[in-house]
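Obj.: predict assembly geometry.
Materials: sequence records (below).
Method: joint structure prediction, all chains together.
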Amino acid sequence: MNDRITLNNDITMPALGFGVFQTPPAETAASVAEALRVGYRLIDTAAAYGNEREVGEAVRASGLDRSEVFIETKLWISDYGYEEALNGFDKSAGKLGVDTIDLLLLHQPLTSDFDKTIGAYKALETLLADGRVRSIGVSNFMPEVLERLLAATDVVPAVNQVEVHPFFSQSDVQKADAGHGILTQAWSPMGGITSYGGSDRSTFDDPVIGEIAAQHGKTPAQVMLRWHLQQGRSAIPKSVRPERITANFDVFDFELTEEELARIDALETGVRSGPDPDSITLASFARDIPEA
Ligand code: NDP
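Observations (raw structure tokens):
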């Protein structure tokens, strides 16, 4: 298992990153600072999270060279369309305080207005050609939507960031991604959404994961993250608690067996905890992304 992954455009990035969805702006700089201190070198944010500015502050304050930190962010659907997405990049880069974004994703497909989605992706292609972003990709693109995108654009996305955890692993999406050389990056990699999303069963309390964790002297969170890494996915766990931020990065000193990986695979429920990507429309999810 490699702790870095080479994308389909030869850019490399850490397999394990740090997410900041639902991290309040006031807590973001401290949690990103802690993550960078313990060794994370990939930060995943989004225009819609409202904390890009604080991510940028923490990266600058870390003393690390800009080239050592892989910054990933996402354009929100309110900024889709070609010109709008170019402006969306300016807003994100401005808040992050960077000239170049390492990986820029479309946060959601807008299936009800796919022309705008295509326009936004073409803007990402322009930004890539101009060297403003080092790689481009998508998030929450199901296989048939991905095919529609590929048919209308030139650059194959480097990454598709989707809900993947032991209760919902979207093997069809992973297969489609792999078929195009697209890296699947797991959001809610430890199944956080199964706890805060209101499901009655949480991955953290699953007895099979608990048993495997006990076997290795590790925590359920660490076992879930290791499961992603050994299966070749990128994962971006989130926490605001220093002890968890540290523990979630401590996954490079043990190995799950094939049998253990298969037992975790078998926890699949077929039920997504996040929103159905088809349900994301401007009518229900538009939000104003402020200028930088
Ligand atoms: P995670 O699987 O990372 O779980 C995070 C949740 O679990 C938080 O409630 C956190 O609470 C808790 N937690 C963290 N570490 C531990 C631990 N070791 N033991 C027990 N509980 C723990 O889910 P997220 O939904 O946060 O997803 C991670 C990242 O993925 C996001 O931050 C974001 O970057 C991305 N994402 C992208 C989406 C998209 O549509 N593209 C959608 C959702 C997420 P606490 O902070 O209190 O520790």
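Conclusions so far: The chain has a mean pLDDT of 97.
To do: check interface contacts against the pulldown list.
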